[in-house]
Amino acid sequence: MELVKAIVNYNAGERTATVYTRDKAVMRKLDKLVADFSDIPTS
């Protein structure tokens, strides 16, 4: 099993999250999720 390091900062007041990772595969998956769900309203 490979360990993947990521830091997630969630701001409950603004309902936003920031994810930091150096894993390129995780970055690509997150980028795809953002693209796939970019039409969902945030408020």
* Rounded radius of gyration (Å): 12 Å
The major β-sheet equals: 2 strands, antiparallel
Shape: flat
Instruction: Describe the strand arrangement of the main beta sheet, using strand numbers.
Output: 1-2
* Count of DSSP-assigned helices: 1
Q: Helix proportion of residues, in percent?
A: 25-40%
Number of strands: 2
Structural class: alpha+beta
How far do the termini sit from each other? 38 Å
Order of helices and strands: EEH
* Beta-strand residue fraction: 25-35%
Low-pLDDT ranges: none
- Tally of separate domains: 1
Overall residue-averaged pLDDT value: 87
Primary descriptors:
flat, 43 residues, 1 helix, two-stranded antiparallel sheet, single chain, alpha+beta
